[in-house]
């Protein structure tokens, strides 16, 4: 796919530093991301029945999953299920599809479960265990989570046939902690919750991504990093979105560094949308109005 240049050539970047697509090459290893990865790896290597990874929207959960996949050996068959919804029978179909297994239409729940069980036993006979990773698992119903717990019953003390990794937003933890979910909770042997970045790590995150993309890291001043943090509260996905706009504005204005004034211009124009946040809206209201942004010609 052709790279959209816009500001990348102007700043002499080799790539877009703030793409929203999860990319392990851009992963910023803050202390908490290192801890989360270690717990994630511990859960898989210790054969934990269920590993739980939660965090705020855009905290880097999916990127951590992408970084883990290459580390899994040939004795592991991975099924990655994203945004699975529906009833219990449909969930089993999602799993079969993720494992690359055909699932005939019209099959009953019992038939679908038997089909999945056959796949799991086949992989076990071949010396492989199955790891099922559910991204955005907060979208699963309680019945769906209970269905997943039942899969871990195929394991014995000595032999682990299937492991589950549940990745989701904070409400997933709330779901699992409900009184009726105690049997599932007892199977969670490893868990970690990713929080937002603090101000210092947010600045490091911004400059890290710029350097990975081929820049120097000095493209963002301290005042810019402070203003970006104040507007995003350290959520990585929001950091990416706002930084993208600030680079676009700097390119249009033919300036080589993003400063606090550039960030203020982006916020004043209202092109950055972070959802309802009274604190952010109060800060936005204090910004002085400015003429609307008008796109400039690319600088060669």
Automatic annotation (TrEMBL):
Pfam families reported in the protein's UniProt record: AAA_22
Domain AAA+ ATPase as annotated: residue spans: 47-189
Protein name, as recorded: ExeA family protein
Source organism of the structure: Psychromarinibacter halotolerans
């Amino acid at each position: 796919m052709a790279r959209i240049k816009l500001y990348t050539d102007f700043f002499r970047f080799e790539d877009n530093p703030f793409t929203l697509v999860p990319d392990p090459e851009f992963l910023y290893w803050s202390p908490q991301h290192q801890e989360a990865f270690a717990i994630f790896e511990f859960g898989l290597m210790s054969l934990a029945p269920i590993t739980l990874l939660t965090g705020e929207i855009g905290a880097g959960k999916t990127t951590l999953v992408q970084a883990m996949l290459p580390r899994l050996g040939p004795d592991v068959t991975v099924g990655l299920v994203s945004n699975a919804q529906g009833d219990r029978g449909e969930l089993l179909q999602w799993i079969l599809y993720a494992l690359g297994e055909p699932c005939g239409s019209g099959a009953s729940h019992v038939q679908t479960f038997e089909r999945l069980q056959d796949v799991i036993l086949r992989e076990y006979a071949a010396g492989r265990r199955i790891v099922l990773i559910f991204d955005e698992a907060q979208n699963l119903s309680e019945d769906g989570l209970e269905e997943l717990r039942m899969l871990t019953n195929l394991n014995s003390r000595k032999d682990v046939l299937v492991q589950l990794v549940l990745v989701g937003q904070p409400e997933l933890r709330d779901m699992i902690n409900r009184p009726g979910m105690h049997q599932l909770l007892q199977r969670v042997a490893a868990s970690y919750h990713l929080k937002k970045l603090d101000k210092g790590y947010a600045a490091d995150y911004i400059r890290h991504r710029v350097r990975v993309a081929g820049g120097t890291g000095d493209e963002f001043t301290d005042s810019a990093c402070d203003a970006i943090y104040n507007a995003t509260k350290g959520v990585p996905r929001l950091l990416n979105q706002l930084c993208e706009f600030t680079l676009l504005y700097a390119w249009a204005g033919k300036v080589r560094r993003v400063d606090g004034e550039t960030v203020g211009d982006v916020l004043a124009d209202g092109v950055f949308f972070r959802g309802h946040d009274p604190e952010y809206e109060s800060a936005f209201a204090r910004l002085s109005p400015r003429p609307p942004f008008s796109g400039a010609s690319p600088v060669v």
